[in-house]
Amino acid sequence: MYQRVTLLGRIGNITAGDKATRISVATSESWKKDDEWQTKTSWHNCICFGISKTYFDAKEFAVGDMVLVEGKLDYYKKEETYYTSIIINSIKRVSKNAKIDDSTTVPNPDDDMAKSADTNNTTQPETVEDDDLPF
To answer: Which of 10, 34, 83, 133 has its CA 20 to 30 A from that of 93?
Structure first.
């Protein structure tokens, strides 16, 4: 079995920890209800093992940058609360015209897809107008 999560959103925060860098990513969706636009923003906790905050700073990832995050879901319990996070396999900055600017791939030995993925062979997404994006 295999699970995969793909997010297209904006960076909210980058925090360095002892063993990992945590990144919060905001995604939004909009719809029209009764001739009025409604918007819902969801925040996602993403964890990147093996890459320090210094690396993200050097690559100039910043709050507000649009990124494409790929990874897998992770569930854990701390005290009496359950949490869901996304373990990042790759994160790419996306410019306004939806071209991939920069890529950081995080190898995960438990992930069969990461073992077989060729990081030099990334496909470019179609160009999307800013007005078509939900945020």
So the answer is: 83
- DSSP assignment letter at 99: -
Structure tokens of 40?
């819902």
Nearest to 41 by CA among 54, 60, 59, 24: 24
Tell me the three state secondary structure of residue 45: strand
**What are 107's two structure tokens?**
């190898």
**Torsions phi, psi for 49 (to 5 deg):** -85, 145
Q: What is the mean pLDDT of each run of 10 residues along the chain (135 residues)?
A: 90 86 93 91 91 75 90 91 92 70 49 41 45 49
Decide the pairing of beta strands 36-49 and 81-94. Answer: parallel
Structural contact between residues 30 and 134, judged by C-beta atoms closer than 8 angstroms? yes
User: What are the structure tokens assigned to 135, written together?
Assistant: 């945020």
Domain that holds residue 101: 5-132
Q: Is the pTM of this model over 0.85?
A: no
Residues 14 and 56: beta-carbon distance below 8 Å: yes
Instruction: Look up tokens 């993925």; give the residue.
Output: 117
Burial of residue 46, with CB atoms counted within 10 A of its CB: 0-12 exposed, 13-18 middle, 19 or more buried: buried
